[in-house]
């Protein structure tokens, strides 16, 4: 789990410089995400963790926080 969080944090800090995100910060609520970045985030997760994000996974609640992304990745990699 820590390795997953670390990889997500490294990815996000490339885009959200000068911002220290906690694991439960809502990146949508804070205004960091636009539609282009949302697609980049999905593509990063798919490629980095060798999973496929299905239509039913495309719920904002799966991507709002680092913890929620980790949870989605864990669900997808244990099935």
What does this structure look like?
With 79 residues, the protein is mainly alpha-helical. It has a single domain (2-78), classed as ACP-like (Non-ribosomal Peptide Synthetase Peptidyl Carrier Protein, Chain A), CATH 1.10.1200. It is 53% helix and 0% strand. It comes from Paenibacillus cucumis. Residues 1-77 form the Carrier domain. This is Acyl carrier protein.
Give the SSE layout.
Blueprint: H1 2-15, H2 35-49, H3 66-78
Helix pairs in contact: 1-2, 1-3
Key words describing this protein structure:
mainly alpha; Non-ribosomal Peptide Synthetase Peptidyl Carrier Protein, Chain A; 53% helix; single chain
**The biggest beta sheet, please?**
none
Count every helix, treating DSSP H or I runs of 4 or more residues as helices. Answer: 3
Number of strands: 0
Strand percentage lies at under 5%
Provide the succession of SSEs: HHH
CATH fold-level label: Non-ribosomal Peptide Synthetase Peptidyl Carrier Protein, Chain A
Helicity, in percent? 40-55%
Give the radius of gyration.
Answer: 12 Å
**So, CATH architecture?**
Orthogonal Bundle
Rounded average pLDDT: 93
Give the N-terminus to C-terminus distance in angstroms. Answer: 16 Å
* Quaternary structure type: single chain
Structural class: mainly alpha
Tell me the CATH superfamily: ACP-like
**How many domains make up the coordinates?**
1
List low-confidence stretches: none
Give the CA-based shape: globular
């Amino acid at each position: 789990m820590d390795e997953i969080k670390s990889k997500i944090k490294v990815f996000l800090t490339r885009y959200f410089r000068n911002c220290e995100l906690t694991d439960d910060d809502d990146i949508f609520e804070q205004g960091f995400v636009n539609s282009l970045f949302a697609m980049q985030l999905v593509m990063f997760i798919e490629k980095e963790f060798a999973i496929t994000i299905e239509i039913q996974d495309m719920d904002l609640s799966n991507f709002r926080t680092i913890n929620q992304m980790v949870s989605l990745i864990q669900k997808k990699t244990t099935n």
